[in-house]
């Protein structure tokens, strides 16, 4: 049984940075790609970016160049480094692996 737990969200001013973590329990972490999604109030959940088992990454155009995904397989953890945050980045951020979802972590970008 896979369980995912996100953390690291909070309130940050525009232009600031946050690093989110997604810790996975259960077997098989190293064989799966992991994706980050986000959902703002009233909006559908949208894909933010992904990292494969081979460390290939891809990002949505809205975050390309500002967000970076990394993984530490020894710690069963995937990170989402978010720089130059904008108010439109405000959302609940979720990680996804093998069709499993975490509970999400709130990111609020506001002055």
Short description:
The chain contains no helices and eleven strands.
**Average residue pLDDT:** 95
Fraction of residues in H or I helices: under 10%
> In angstroms, what is the radius of gyration?
13 Å
Structural class: mainly beta
Shape summary: globular
Stretches where pLDDT is under 50 for at least 5 consecutive residues are: none
Write the element-wise H/E pattern from the N-terminal end onward: EEEEEEEEEEE
Task: Quickly count the helices.
Answer: 0
Largest sheet, described in full? 7 strands, mixed
Number of strands: 11
Which range does the strand content fall in?
A: over 45%
Distance between the first and last residues' Cα: 40 Å
Report on this structure.
The chain is mostly beta strands and 111 residues long. It has no helices and eleven strands. Strands 2, 4, 5, 6, 9, 10 and 11 form a seven-stranded mixed sheet that branches. Strands 1-3-8-7 form a four-stranded antiparallel sheet, with no helix packed on it. It is globular. The protein starts with a strand and ends with a strand.
Helix and strand topology:
Layout: E1 3-7, E2 10-12, E3 18-25, E4 34-39, E5 46-51, E6 57-59, E7 67-72, E8 77-82, E9 91-97, E10 100-101, E11 105-109
Parallel strand pairs: 2-11
Antiparallel strand pairs: 1-3, 3-8, 4-5, 4-9, 5-6, 7-8, 9-10, 9-11
List keywords for this structure.
single chain, four-stranded antiparallel β-sheet, mainly beta, seven-stranded mixed β-sheet, globular, 111 residues
